[in-house]
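Anyone up for a design puzzle?
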């Protein structure tokens, strides 16, 4: 763990949950870097659930039912896709420590995947943490056009059905902005987070 770790505690799955509740999340410099550092952006990316935008072209694609959307069936494949197909950096921030701890959180029911399948091939997806009425999106990827957008569209509908009130994207990209994402200052985010943590979201409320 980084020497600049503000918690100065052993990094565990429980500590990660505590960090998210405090508005902080972990990253690593690269896949091969053993250290993890904590991030708390001045501007936080979110997607207001009632402002999520689906383009006409994506709406048409969704109606075609070209792909199958599954939830929580293959964590390892999703995080591998996010690490190697879903980053705009030269190297991924998902290192072995993050893989191990989020796998533990997945096994404990805190971490979830949304997966887009084409037959037996995983062609897109995302993963993140559900805590209270907040969902913290970690990463997404696609191997087919629009596959990550399809995963995100499914996630938003699932969160609405489950009574979630906050979709945290950490940072804002052009991709997310085109679908309704925006940035909010840290103090506003902390207010939204506090409200969301007092809610009881149910990720399984909407089952396929």
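Challenge accepted. My sequence:
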């Amino acid at each position: 763990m980084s020497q600049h770790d503000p918690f100065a505690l052993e990094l565990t799955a429980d500590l990660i949950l505590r960090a998210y509740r405090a508005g902080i999340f972990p990253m690593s410099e690269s896949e091969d870097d053993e250290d993890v550092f904590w991030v708390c952006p001045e501007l936080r990316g979110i997607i207001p659930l009632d402002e999520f935008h689906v383009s006409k072209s994506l709406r048409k694609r969704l109606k075609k039912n070209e792909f199958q959307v599954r939830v929580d069936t293959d964590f390892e494949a999703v995080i591998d896709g996010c690490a190697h197909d879903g980053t705009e950096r030269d190297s991924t921030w998902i290192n072995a420590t993050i893989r191990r701890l989020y796998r533990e959180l997945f096994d404990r029911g805190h971490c979830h995947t949304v997966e887009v399948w084409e037959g037996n091939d995983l062609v897109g997806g995302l993963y993140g943490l559900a805590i209270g009425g907040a969902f913290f999106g970690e990463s997404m990827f696609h191997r087919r056009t629009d596959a990550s957008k399809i995963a995100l569209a499914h996630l938003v509908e699932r969160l609405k059905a489950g009574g979630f009130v906050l979709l945290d994207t950490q940072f804002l990209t052009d991709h997310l902005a085109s679908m309704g994402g925006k940035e909010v200052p840290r103090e506003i985010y902390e207010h939204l987070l506090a409200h969301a943590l007092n809610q009881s979201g149910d990720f399984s409320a909407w089952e396929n």
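A detail worth pointing out: The helical segments are 13-21, 56-64, 75-85, 96-107, 147-161, 174-177, 186-197.
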